[in-house]
Amino acid sequence: xxxxxxxxxxxxxxxxxxxxxxxxxxxxxxxxxxxxxxxxxxxxxxxxxxxxxxxxxxxxxxxxxxxxxxxxxxxxxxxxxxxxxxxxxxxxxxxxxxxxxxxxxx
Amino acid sequence: xxxxxxxxxxxxxxxxxxxxxxxxxxxxxxxxxxxxxxxxxxxxxxxxxxxxxxxxxxxxxxxxxxxxxxxxxxxxxxxxxxxxxxxxxxxxxxxxxxxxxxxxxxxxxxxxxxxxxxxxxxxxxxxxxxxxxxxxxxxxxxxxxxxxxxxxxxxxxxxxxxxxxxxxxxxxxxxxxxxxxxxxxxxxxxxxxxxxxxxxxxxxxxxxxxxxxxxxxxxxxxxxxxxxxxxxxxxxxxxxxxxxxxxxxxxxxxxxxxxxxxxxxxxxxxxxxxxxxxxxxxxxxxxxxxxxxxxxxxxxxxxxxxxxxxxxxxxxxxxxxxxxxxxxxxxxxxxxxxxxxxxxxxxxxxxxxxxxxxxxxxxxxxxxxxxxxxxxxxxxxxxxxxxxxxxxxxxxxxxxxxxxxx
Lengths: 106, 406
Description:
The structure holds two protein chains of two kinds. In chain A, 17% of the residues lie in helices and 22% in strands. Chain A is built from three helices and five strands. Chain A has one domain (2-105): Ubiquitin-like (UB roll) (Roll), CATH 3.10.20. The longest helix of chain A is centred in the N-terminal third of the chain and has 7 residues, at 24-30. Chain A is of the alpha+beta class. The mean pLDDT of chain A is 95. Chain A is globular, with a radius of gyration of 12 Å. Chain A has helices spanning 24-30, 55-58, 66-72; strands at 2-7, 13-18, 50-53, 82-84, 97-100. By secondary structure, chain B is α+β, with helices and mostly antiparallel strands. Chain B has 17 helices and 13 strands. In chain B, the strands form four sheets. Chain B has a six-stranded mixed β-sheet. Chain B starts with 16 loop residues before the first strand and ends with a strand.
């Protein structure tokens, strides 16, 4: 199991343990973290699992695919650290990952 | 039929076989007992009649659809194997291609149909839903399919794409052709193609830039395609994808939604008490009454899935609607529950070929359910619903209902 810290836009923090191999989106869904909607269930088709990866972790995560890049180009309030959490798969190396959630996914 | 089929060494011989015909009227009327039967035989079953594999197992459906390199779409997502037979029309640049061709086409469509892009349409979609709902409910009785589920998408969707008002009636028969063509050349296919020529001509004419309004989604597709250096005839095919898959799907889904609520009055009551559930309720409709109920994949190499060895070049019928009722994945899968967390359902597909228009579909479904839930206290069946048969779409042709207003 590895830890992920989700910080909602209002500052609420949730540290949860999820299995390596699961996505950051799945961890949020399983722990009912409301800032992640994930309507398409992880097919990189809805862009409602948008998150901001903490600066310290950005380089540790593989770059977005073309498909993710396209979906990101359409999210609200995109920042350089924006990612779709369904495209980040947890590994032991990401243990302790911190992601911040946007105010709204729509 | 493959020549090696009867060979004793053929690893395909390990699959349980079934004489279920997924294109029979019995199956299409109510596929759910058949999905159960298929699952009870195994995660992958050989359909004798069509010499293909079938799965209604969530785990296999999910794994196969995510592994698009091995379970490819360029062999066609219907029964016909495009690697061996000529398709009835030039293949879709998104539905029936693999990366890297798929990626560049999908990029254009996903940009045009993305959530922020759709924001500008939301008010219009909601206002029109309220207008159509107000009109139909006044008499207290109406046909939920022909008076609402068909006319509302036929207004908002072609408006959004930028099609003229005249001739829109061609969209439904075209969608019917596209989805029927994914099955065998049976009577449904023949009926759908009886009057194909003028319908196809209308559609292809309206895929062209000069025949679309300057501010619609169709024109945006052309603009983005041009910027990306995509030739115009390919841009037309991308518009064709939107016209093929964007209407019959939502019409049937909205019709199915009403059918669900007419059968589950407590769920309707829950929605009227909390209209904010409308979006999730529509999602549950897609899980429970899967509209696009199955697509094929073709294996590009030998592969083992769920412990079963599949040969290269096998066609596999991937039952999205079956996966959506798999008890291994869902608690009480045969219950329609609008508060259920149904994320991860396969109703819009899974993986890189998941429905690119799913956000516009949700917006239509949510708008209609919200508008109804604000005004309608009860929905009851007022006659026998009539099923619309299609080789790969599930929906109704008629649904007489009576409503009591709030």
